[in-house]
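Q: How do we represent a protein-ligand complex in a form that can be generated cell by cell?
A: Start from the inputs.
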Amino acid sequence: MTAATESTVLPERITRFPFPFPRDVYRYSTNVEPAGTRTETAAGGWGEHPVDIDGFYVDELADRARVLAADPDRFQALPHMDIAQWDAMVTLMRMLAEAYPRTFALDRDGDVWRWSNVALDLEQAFAYGQAATLPEPPLLYIGRQIQEDVVLLDQRDGALWGDAGLVTSAADWSLRFDVGMSFLQIHGPVPRIHTEGVIGRAQSFLLGLQAGQRYRRTNWTLTVDRRLDTATETYPEWGRDRRLLAEGPLDDVGHRLHLRVEVQHLIRLGASGALMFLIRTYLLPFDEIALVPEWADRLYRVLEELPEDMADYKGITRTREPGLKWLREYGGVCP
Ligand code: HEM
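Then emit the C-alpha cells for the protein with protoporphyrin IX containing FE bound:
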C-alpha cells in the first residue's frame, strides 16, 4: 500500500487503472499473457474481465454514437465476415452476461435468442445469422454496448487479415485505411518491431491460438484531454493540442495531459475461427497519476528514457518534455 492510498480514498478510475509499466525502461515486445486474471498495481488492480464495464460506460457509448453519426465508416465489414460478426456478437453477449449478470442476460429458446442490457434499457430478440432480426449489423449492434473497440481478423493463407471492425477510439490510426490489410501490413508503420522480430513472433503466436483461448497485452501513449477519438480522420481537431499544451502554462499540464493505456484482448472465436481483437482505452491525467507516487516515479523514468524514434511514432515528442517538467515540479518526482 502506498502513502497516498493509506491516507486518501482513491476513486475507481485510479484504483482500476491498468498502469502498464513493470520497469523503468519501456521497449516493444511480444508482451502477451493469459487473460481474465487480476493484475495488482500500486493503487489497486485490473483485468478480471476481458470486457470491462466501468463508471464511464454511458458517457463513452454516447461518445461512440456521436463519432459514428459523424462518420459511419468507423464501422467496416467485408462481406465474407458475416459469420464472424455473428460469432463475435454472441461471444461478447455471453462474456457480458457472465461477468455482469445483474446488467446483461442472454437466453435462448429454440431459434429465438433474447438479449437484454439493463444499463442501456435494451431488449432484443433475434435469430442467429438472420440479418433482418437485428436493427443493424451484429458487430455494430454489440459494439454500441461495449466500451471496447473491436477488430475481427480472418485467418487464411497462413496469415491474419483485419477484415471487419468497429473502432472509435483509435490512437492515431484509421480502420477505414487498414481494413482488408494483413496483420503485418497493419503494423507496417511501427518502428523496430519488424527488424527486432517482435511482430513475426506475435503473428506465429496468434496463428496458433485455439478456439476459446484468450490472451491480453497492453499498449500506451499520451493524449491531451480526455479524448477517446484520436483517429487519423479527426487529426485536424486534436493534433494541434499537443503543440498548444507544450506552449501553454505548465499549470495546465497536470489536468490536461493523460496517460493513455490500451488493454488489448486476443480471443479465438469458436464458430467462425476468426480472431477477435478488443482494444479498451483508459485515460488518466498526470495530476491523478501523481496521487500514486510509485506511478509518477515510474512514468517519469519511462518517458525520460524512451528513444526518440519510439516517442516520434507515439506522437509524444512535443508533450513528453512538459509532462516530465510537470512531474518534477508538481508531481513529487525527484529525478
Ligand atoms: C501480440 C499481438 C500484437 C503485438 C505484439 C502488437 C504490437 C504493436 C505495437 C508495438 C504497436 C505500436 C504501438 C505504439 O507504439 O503505440 C502496434 C500498433 C498497432 N497495432 Fe498491434 N500488436 C498486436 C496485435 C494487434 C492486432 C491483433 C491488431 C489488429 C488489427 C493490431 C493493430 C494495430 C494497429 C492498427 C496499430 C497502429 C498502427 C499504425 O500506426 O497505423 N495489433 N502494435
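The chain has 15 helices and twelve strands. The first helix runs from residue 3 to 7.
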